[in-house]
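Work Package 3 (structural annotation) set out to generate three-dimensional models for the target panel prioritized at the project kickoff. During this period the team completed the workflow that converts sequence records into discrete structure tokens, so that structures can be stored uniformly alongside our sequence database. As a representative example, we reproduce one entry of 291 residues exactly as it appears in the project archive.
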Amino acid sequence: MSIPPFDQRDGFIWVNGALAPWRDAKLHVLSHGLHYGSCVFEGERAYGGKIFKSREHSERFKRSAEILDFEIPYSVEELDAAKDATLKANNLKNSYVRPVAWRGSEMMAVAAQNSTIHVAIAVWDWPSMFDIATKMKGIKLDIAEYRRPDPQTAPSMAKAAGLYMICTISKHRAERRGYADALMLDWQGRVAECTGANVFFVKDGKLHTPIADCFLDGITRRTVIDLAKRQGIELIERRIMPEEMASFEECFICGTGAEVTPVADIGGQYSFTPGAVSRALIEAYDKEVNA
């Protein structure tokens, strides 16, 4: 059975304070968010009908909007309630949750101070991408051509739609070349993140991860760091140069979609063997989100 496109599905989407039929949730072609990237969003996941770290996501959602110089006209509590209502209306338990906010169509120029801020929340079925046996084989990553920008040139601490343009380009290129995703370097050529997930490495039982100062400090990333500390795994946040990847034993990525997924190869240049640390954090993360 073919999967319908996202604008041709049944169910309900929360739009500007009320549930609307899925197919009626539309925006005008001259919306500022479409033309100028004045749009922020969240990627969340519900397990057993409960959204994992819902409040943290709502708080970041509002912070992202503030960085883009607009205010989401709903409180964190109202956003959390709207997400729960949308899950319930669509009768979903294990699903992806997508809040999004954007400037409307009142002004069509770079400046848009008087544009209405629209907010929508959609949910759809999304089971775990891999079982643990499949995950432990490891995925392959390409090395992206585009780099994460200098944080003085882009609002890198916001989960802003415009920042993902180079991610889409990089992921498309990776998939054409037979990879699952792409590893991106930062503007100075250091290891940064993947197109939609953070990256970790293991050496001598210690966990190494890049400093999140030019890319999003993911909520899943922070969860993994906390889980590692609870298990007594030493965590080192530092600058990592690409050539250092030859010395690491394990590698995994993490994010709302990927959860915790080991990596077996990066660019055909660096090989890793998913092992005990990766497995322990996969299991700990699964237990955490299903608690």
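The two ends are 33 Å apart (CA to CA).
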